[in-house]
Design goal:
The complex is a heterodimer of chains A (about 250) and B (about 325). Chain A has helices at about 1-15, 15-45, 55-90, 90-95, 100-105, 110-135, 145-170, 175-195, 200-205, 210-215, 225-250. Chain A has about 250 residues and is mainly alpha-helical. In chain A, helix 7 runs parallel beside helix 11 and helix 10 packs across helix 11 (about 225-250). Chain B is α/β, with parallel strands linked by helices. In chain B, the strands form three sheets. A seven-stranded mixed beta sheet of chain B has the order 6-7-8-3-9-10-15, with helices on both faces. In chain B, strands 2-1-4-5 form a four-stranded antiparallel beta sheet. The relative contact order of chain B is 0.16. The chains are: A mainly alpha (about 250), B alpha/beta (about 325). The interface between A and B is medium-sized, with 23 and 32 residues.
């Protein structure tokens, strides 16, 4: 039953084509824009200070831009996936099928996260192609190890930020408010939590973005992996558990 | 004949040798201190069309949501298809289709696509029934159109189509005639009767009392969360218009009835008319009084009223606080 529910959930999200097509186009545009900015920076740089457009540096810049795009897409698609059925009164018709509510709820986050990540794939491909095609200007070449690490980071972002947004949507039961709150949490709340690191370094580790950086496996990331795993799971699972309890009890 | 009894199940005509399709036992639904449903007991016989009537806010939709497992009763027990909802909701609801409040769909998807989504979750061959249910509700040609382009009537039809996907033996329809034009209402009436002829049970709430009278076998009228009348439609309206008699001397007959029975009587179109509810016993009493007085009685009988008139009369009556007044059996 779960694979069937997952498929149906994906079709519900993908059926609203305008959302994911727009998201995919924005992701492509962000990648193109990041390379474009590097190209302009290179063109306007003094001779001898050439800027790497392609290669590892160019790809890294594109992925950084793509990360925030994925976070925004996750907030929009995830919050909507979490809220829509309850908001519109559709959930009662799913509940009437006799399928347990928790089963219906359990596929929301995985399905939405899948759509979010798949939406970003064309942009990832474009980033790789441009990194290979554009001049490195003395910078490092693109390594497939870096590509794997960055794609893993984007996948983690898609999974955890979407899960959080689905939970917010399911708790609020209204798409508009859920999208707004998801964006605030992702773009502002997480940064505020990260700032706690200025007070105490270990407090900064409870920011989801920091945890995902650790799980990304880059050299610059600091902190034990197990703490990062616990933090990331807590950001996703605690809100999801609260949302599941609400969905299970709610009279629809 | 309809009259009050203390035990809601005693003498209730819907009860029969077969297991009722829906059974409510002293169901209460409270929101804070307010009882939206107050000690309601009902038995809906299998293979019939059962109408559930009441003014806005009477608790109709609340009760329907509880029957469909969408809301939990505060007290009491609900059995659907013989299975208690509290313990085996999945088994109880697997053969049930319904519309609650209004039929809602993913408006950005086509009607067919919507049905396919639900059919996958329903399983048990529901996907193979998508075409046939679309045809049955008259949407065969519009199935590929996005639902956002559907009229309210078309959405109602699509709602019925979705309700039919599990090949249900019970259909629970909340105001299904909303948005239908007169032609659509007539088609809908035929469709509902068709479901009953196929052996399905239909539990329907509606404001269209004339339609309920035409469609339903049994009816319950609810007011302020309590069932105030329950029984076969014919019995609910029977005799509620009073007594009408064709006699040789109507004026003398009217005076006699007023004197003997203590009820107002008049002459209308040359016939004796005694307004107000009249039971079989009342008719027999009047006939005997007339004959004993030497008045020739050519014809005498009960005057029925429309369900609408009966409904409005019940709504005007003061609330005596009784929990239920089921129709008595023959």
């Amino acid at each position: 039953m779960i694979p069937t529910l997952f498929r149906v959930e994906v079709e519900k999200v993908v059926g609203r084509r305008i959302v994911w097509i727009t998201s995919a186009v924005i992701a492509l545009a962000m990648v193109a824009a990041s390379y474009g900015i590097l190209a302009i920076a290179d063109a306007t740089a003094d001779s001898g200070d050439a800027v790497a457009i392609g290669g590892g540096d160019g790809f890294g810049a594109a992925v950084a831009a793509l990360y925030f795009t994925v976070v925004v897409i996750a907030a929009v698609i995830g919050a909507r996936a979490g809220a829509y059925d309850q908001e519109k009164g559709l959930f009662r018709y799913w509940a009437m099928t006799g399928v347990p509510r928790l089963s219906l709820f359990s596929v929301r986050a995985p399905a939405a996260a899948t759509v979010v990540f798949v939406t970003a794939i064309p942009a990832i491909v474009l980033a790789i192609v441009l990194a290979l095609a554009l001049p490195t200007n003395g910078g490092p070449d693109l390594s497939w190890g870096d590509v794997g690490q960055d794609v893993w980071w984007l996948l983690l972002a898609a999974v955890f930020w979407t899960a959080l947004s689905v939970a917010i949507g399911s708790l609020l039961g209204g798409s508009g408010g859920a999208i707004a709150i998801s964006l605030v949490v992702a773009l502002l709340g997480d940064q505020l939590v990260a700032l706690l690191g200025l007070i105490n370094e270990s407090l900064g580790a409870i920011a989801l973005s920091n945890a995902l950086s650790v799980l990304r496996g880059t050299d610059s990331a600091e902190g034990p992996v197990w703490i990062a795993i616990v933090v990331a799971l807590a950001w996703a699972l605690i809100p999801l558990a609260a949302a599941a309890a609400r969905v299970r009890r709610a009279e629809v | 004949m309809v009259h009050a009894v203390s035990d809601p199940h005693a003498g209730s005509s819907p009860s029969g040798p077969e297991q009722p399709m829906i059974e409510l036992r002293n169901v209460v639904k409270a929101f804070g201190s307010r009882r939206a449903i107050d000690d309601v007991s009902l038995r809906v016989p299998a293979g019939t069309c059962y109408g559930f009537l009441g003014p806005n806010g009477a608790g109709k939709t609340t009760l329907i949501r509880m029957i469909l497992g969408l809301a939990r009763p505060t007290a009491g027990e609900i059995l659907v298809r013989g299975r208690p909802l509290a313990d085996s909701a999945h088994d109880a609801l697997s053969g049930v289709g319904g519309i609650v409040e209004e039929p809602i769909f993913y408006t950005y998807l086509s009607g067919r696509r919507n049905l396919e989504l639900w059919a996958r979750v329903e399983g048990d061959g529901a996907l193979d029934r998508v075409d046939s249910v679309l045809e049955r509700v008259g949407l065969g040609r519009r199935g590929e159109d996005p639902v956002k382009g559907y009229s309210m009537g078309m959405r109602q039809r699509l709602g019925v189509a979705r309700a039919l996907l599990p090949d249900p033996d019970l259909l629970v329809l909340d105001e299904p005639s909303n948005g239908l034009d007169p032609e659509g209402i007539a088609e809908f009436r035929q469709m509902i009767r068709g479901f009953v002829q196929e052996g399905r049970t239909v539990f329907i709430s509606s404001h269209l009392l004339d339609e309920i009278q035409k469609i339903c076998d049994d009816v319950a009228i609810v007011r302020e969360g309590r069932v105030i009348v329950e029984g076969p439609v014919a019995e609910v309206v029977e005799g509620q218009g009073g007594i009408r008699a064709r006699v040789d001397d109507p004026a003398r007959a009217a005076a006699l009835i007023e004197q003997r029975l203590g009820r107002p009587a008049s002459v209308e179109d040359g016939a004796l008319v005694v307004p107000g509810a009249a039971s079989d016993d009342d008719v027999a009493l009047a006939a005997r009084a007339l004959v004993d007085a030497g008045i020739a009685v050519y014809e005498i009988g009960q005057l029925n009223v429309s369900l609408e008139a009966r409904f409005l009369e019940l709504m005007r009556e003061p609330d005596d606080g009784s929990s239920a007044t089921p129709a008595a059996g023959p």
